[in-house]
Amino acid sequence: MAGGASLPATVLPFILRGVRLVGIDSVRCSYGRRLKAWERLAGLLKADRLASLSETIGLDQALDYGEQSLKGEVRGRLVVHTGAD
User: Fold this and answer.
1) d(CA 80, CA 61)
2) pTM score, two decimals?
3) Distance between CA atoms of 14 and 35, rounded to whole angstroms?
4) Do 69 and 2 meet the contact criterion of CB atoms below 8 Å apart?
5) Which of 32, 36, 54, 63 could form a disulfide with 77 if both were Cys (CB 3.0 to 4.6 A apart)?
6) What is the pLDDT of residues 48-80, one digit of tens each?
């Protein structure tokens, strides 16, 4: 989301292609239900797979990676380690 969080779009292309846009409104779910969902996700998504989807970089690398990301040259998620523990 380096370019921003907004999504200026219409749903028409999704409707024409038969794509369903679905989401979860977890605000209204009970704590117990959310906990069960997170436990299920933890069982489905293994740590090694999750690690392959992200890369940890230093704060000193953030600007370079930000430029690369805006050019579409970065895949996955970046975790910026600020040096603070």
Assistant:
1) 8
2) 0.47
3) 31
4) yes
5) 54
6) 887 888 899 999 999 999 999 899 898 888 999
